[in-house]
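Record pair follows.
FIRST:
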Amino acid sequence: MLEQDIKEVLVTREEIQEAVNRLGEQLTKEYKDKEVVVVGILRGASIFMADIVRAMDVYLEIDFMDVSSYGDAFESSGEVKIIKDLDTHLEGRHVLVVEDIIDTGRTLKYLVDLFKYRKAASVQVCTLLDKPERRVMKDIIPDYVGLEVPDEFVVGYGLDFEQKYRNLPYIGVLKPEIYQ
């Protein structure tokens, strides 16, 4: 049923798993002697975050933050609204922000600055997908990237359109007639 709305599969289930395994190894090395707070950005990053923390062999704590810069719009407004804040105090702690996709970078810039303001010992970013062509905030460069994707409207593996398609096991390009 959902497949009929997909123009093409951009990243297969196997390619996602390879990226998760590679990132898990890198993050294990990075945080082997540190306790890290892994912050997932709801809702899109939840599936990726579940996989990435299981691929990390380190002591960690998880927390979630829900922010919105889109509202009901197709494009980010640039204004970030915190819907659910963290329950964890960050002062003096190492923070790994987990994102599903980095597009313009506006929301991520806001979050990184916020966590630094809250006196985190370090703030690093891990994203499954990076879409550098659309980057507005040029100083936002993720520390860990699963895959780079072209400027297409992608859904699946947590990414949505109108809260649908998150449950696809791959990343697909949504047919334009669905979102236009």
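SECOND:
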Amino acid sequence: MNVAEHEIKSLLQDYKRISVYGLSPDPAKPSHYVPVYMRNQGWQILGTYPKKHEVGGFQIFEKLSDIPLEDRKFLDVFRSSDRIAEVVDEILEIGGVEVLWLQLGIENKEAELRAEKAGIKVVSNRCLIIEHKKNF
């Protein structure tokens, strides 16, 4: 993680669009209710999920590269820690990601370092809901 604790609030203020990698159709999962919470706080939310769904009224794309470039600057990831290297490979290949946010319980030091070396701001093992409530 190359974003300091005191930088998180300004990071959230600077990016009002969030793309969610793995936005679940299951309202009981954090990968669904965290994006709902952030949308209710004023952020614009798009998502990726392998199967298109309309649960929650989100615009869902099949893969990250389908999301318009201007909408994928802040990427909130809901994938297991062992899959983060694949996510970083994908974002380095397609470009456009400025912030890589790995949700609570998700971290992969090697993959995070690769993203950081590419100039991406990385936040790991942090929940957007918790950080929003702490900072706003």
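COMMENT: The mean pLDDT is 96.
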